[in-house]
TrEMBL record:
Pfam families attached to this UniProt entry: Vinculin (PF01044)
Protein name per Swiss-Prot or TrEMBL: Alpha-catulin
Species, as recorded: Aquila chrysaetos chrysaetos
InterPro entries from the UniProt entry: Alpha-catenin/vinculin-like_sf, Alpha_catenin, CTNNAL1, Vinculin/catenin
Gene that produces this protein: CTNNAL1
Classification via SUPFAM superfamilies: alpha-catenin/vinculin-like
Length: 763
């Protein structure tokens, strides 16, 4: 597997001490890396003592205590490693060798640091850390290398667990494909649901633990597909069972199974870091990344005139300009943007020609005037590339904004549902053509956005969105055709609803993605954002430190998964409603978006993901959510003063209802509980009450929007947007690996033994 020592490439440690773990090992997860940090730190401190001239009794005693502590901790660590080896026979030999090496290195360090009882620790009669300086470095290297091997081997067990879980899911899927009766289907699907919950938790933990942001984004995309496809698989299979002779129902079901298998395969590719037949993953280069690399090479000429050839630079520009053809050839790019991109492409070629001319002269003769001319040429070339970058960004994002606004009413989907129930095959065919046109527009939008996304995780999100539209469009069409053929079928109607909801959800996600892309371009944010409402040292009540955080186990998270899914759907509904407001700075919209962001973080908690790592984080988030709801109620009261008398009572009644629900949520969130069962009950109550508030919010937003248009009052009297509001994180929100899952595989127990080594940093 990918995490085996023989297939990896390096572990970093302190360079000052000359330490370095086995160069054949690569750490790909945060849990393994963080487990090694204290060991590397303390051994580095120990090594650095060997060259210190001052050796007081206190220092010698400290060195000896450190050596003994290392030896004892390594002994406990090795005992856990050996236990893991005995439970996993395929790794027993490798693990045993690594454990023996670690134990031997620990004993060597204890012997070399046995200096406290010696009057002259540098005496030749006893080999110590001071007399055998290279020996202690060798022992330290061996210790780090062997401990790393044990951790990486333990990590392979986690990977094996994910593969085993995937295999169970695949086997059950094969059974589901072959069932011929509803009773049999229900029984097998119940088993399938439990297996998918286990797989979701395993892969969620792994996603959060990955160091590589690109792999993390790919994992998030695959897991999102599996989550949505689980409901699709249920309704598509039921429809096929109800209408076994319907070709469109069979096509619809087959499409879901095929997509789930692809997603499962991609998850395994990510966790094992391998691809079928050993082929490398080919991700197309974006215009942004191409321009960034090109500019770096151009600016590098200031330091070195000979580090690359003019042909290399010309080739890089040609590749970038070839990619701009995706914009200039697109039927959806405006005439103005197309003309500007073509002009800038032509200018870029001219600037590069001028740069190369001056550069070649400077290689032959470094005069002051030539170097000044070179600097001007570098600046002009980079400026031209920046303008090109700005133009393609404007072209992609303006197209995306227009398309998302135009398609946000979901008129084609609504028409397909109506004509399907009517059994109007001719009308369904007409609207499926319109949906196909819409799909092509949205796919093109995703392709162009990928070029300007700015980060690799966002590029992957764009690719995932493109795939989703490509696949979901035909699935909606087959579901609509099935309903038109069987207009009285409730299950066929439900099936079409599920696929339409997936389409609507992806459109909503695109609005969030567009905001993130604009944020990255304008420098307002980096790869990730942190919710300002989360407790952090010095920011919130100090009493929070005294509370014991509780993490939900797998069974408890499964119980609240359904409630969390309802919360997720409500956040999508709220986002859709806020998008309809012309004035995005309206205080009601601002509070609604903020509440939706916090509700989404609570939904992620129900999946074992996101920034809310413990139940205490969740309770604190619920308090902030309730406070924000109270602020929204105040804004509603202020807004009610602007509307006509006929509309005022209804709006104020809804505002009072919101205040009451938020107060109940605050009381629940602040209530003190003890014990795991009581904590889980409180979690359930907080999410339930948050869901109720979000349900009310879904009713309030369209009402206010309608009244605002009716009264044409604007929002001049409303307060400005609260400064803390931030956009929601989706594929980018990640937490540390939950303890409950790591404990199962031995990583956590190994980690504890290393982390609990309490050494003296310096004396």
């Amino acid at each position: 597997m990918a995490t085996s020592p023989c297939s990896s490439s390096g572990v970093s440690s302190s360079s000052s001490s000359g330490l370095g773990a086995d160069a054949g090992l690569e750490i790909r997860t945060r849990s393994v890396e963080q487990t090694l940090v204290p060991l590397v730190s303390q051994i580095t401190t120990l090594i650095n003592h060997k060259d210190k001239p001052k050796r007081s009794d206190k220092t010698l005693q400290a060195i000896q205590r450190v050596g003994q502590a290392v030896n004892l901790a390594v002994g406990r660590f090795v005992t856990v490693g050996e236990a893991i080896a005995n439970e996993n026979h395929e790794l027993k030999e490798e693990m045993s060798v690594a454990c023996i090496e670690a134990r031997r290195a620990g004993e060597t360090i204890a012997q070399l640091t046995d200096v406290a009882s010696l009057d002259h620790p540098e005496s030749d009669s006893h080999i110590t850390i001071f007399t055998d300086k290279t020996g202690v470095v060798k022992a330290a290297r061996l210790l780090l290398s062997s401990v790393t091997k044990v951790l990486v081997l333990a990590d392979r067990i986690v990977i094996k667990q994910i593969i085993t879980s995937r295999n169970k899911v695949l086997a059950t899927m094969e059974q589901l494909e072959k069932v011929s009766s509803f009773q049999e289907f229900v029984q097998i699907f119940s088993q399938f649901g439990n297996e998918m919950v286990e797989f979701a938790h395993l892969t969620g933990d792994r996603q959060n633990d990955l160091k590589d942001e690109k792999k993390k984004a790919r994992m998030a995309a695959s897991r999102a597909v599996l989550e949505k496809c689980t409901m699709m698989l249920l309704t598509a299979s039921k429809t096929c069972l109800r209408h076994p002779d319907c070709e469109s129902a069979r096509i619809n079901k087959d499409g879901v199974f095929h997509r789930m298998r692809l997603a499962l395969e991609q998850v395994i590719e990510i966790v094992t870091d391998s691809r079928p037949n050993g082929e490398n993953e080919m991700v197309p280069i974006s215009i942004y990344s191409g321009i960034k690399e090109f500019k770096n090479k151009v600016e590098g000429l200031r330091e070195n005139l000979y580090f690359l050839s003019k042909e290399n630079l010309s080739t890089m520009l040609e590749v970038i300009l070839e990619h701009t053809e995706d914009f200039t050839d697109s039927a959806y790019t405006s005439h103005e943007h197309r003309e500007h991109i073509l002009e800038l492409s032509k200018q870029a070629k001219m600037e590069l020609e001028q740069l190369v001319s001056v550069w070649m002269q400077a290689q032959n003769q470094k005069t002051k005037d030539l170097m000044e001319d070179l600097e001007v040429a570098i600046l002009k070339t980079c400026q031209c590339m920046n303008e090109l970058k700005r133009e393609v960004h404007s072209a992609a994002t303006s197209l995306a904004a227009d398309l998302l606004k135009y398609h946000m009413d979901h008129m084609v989907l609504k028409a397909l549902k109506i004509t399907g129930v009517e059994g109007n095959l001719e009308a369904v065919a007409e609207y499926t053509c319109k949906l196909s046109e819409q799909k092509e527009q949205l796919v093109e939008m995703c392709r162009l956005l990928r070029h300007v996304s700015g980060t690799e995780p966002l590029e992957i999100t764009c690719i995932h969105a493109e795939d989703t539209f490509q696949v979901t469009g035909p699935q909606i069409i087959s579901a609509a055709e099935t309903l038109a053929l069987h207009p009285s079928s409730k299950i066929a109607k439900e099936n079409l609803e599920v696929f339409c909801e997936a389409w609507e959800s992806q459109l909503s996600d695109m609005s969030m993605l567009l905001r993130e892309i604009n944020d990255v371009f304008e420098g307002r944010r980096g790869e990730k954002r942190v919710y300002l409402s989360l407790p952090r040292p010095g920011k919130h009540n100090a009493n929070l430190k005294a509370l014991k955080p509780v993490k939900l186990d797998t069974e408890e998270q499964a119980k609240i998964a359904k409630l969390g899914l309802e919360l997720h759907l409500l956040t999508s509904d709220v986002d859709s409603e806020t998008e309809k407001w012309e004035d995005q700075e309206n205080e009601i919209v601002q509070h609604g978006q903020g509440m939706s962001s916090m509700a989404y973080s609570m939904y992620l908690f129900t999946r074992g993901e996101g920034l809310l790592k413990t139940t205490q984080d969740l309770f604190h988030q619920a308090e902030i959510f309730a406070t924000e709801g109270t602020k929204l109620a105040s804004a509603l009261h202020a807004f009610s003063d602007q509307v006509h008398d006929d509309d005022k009572p209804l709006l104020r009644l809804e505002a009072e209802k919101l205040i009451s629900m938020c107060k109940q949520l605050q009381i629940t969130a602040k209530a003190s509980v003890q014990g795991k069962s009581a904590t889980f009950t409180k979690v359930d109550a907080c999410i339930l009450k948050t869901r109720n508030v979000m349900t009310l919010l879904c009713q309030l937003l369209p009402l206010c929007c309608k009244l605002l248009r009716k009264n044409k009052a604007g929002n001049g009297c409303l307060k400005p947007a609260p400064p803390w509001r931030e956009d929601r994180m989706r594929t980018g929100t990640n937490a540390h690996t939950p303890e409950r899952r790591a404990e199962t595989f031995g990583i956590k127990s190994l980690e504890n033994h290393v982390t609990n080594m309490t050494f003296l940093e310096s004396k």
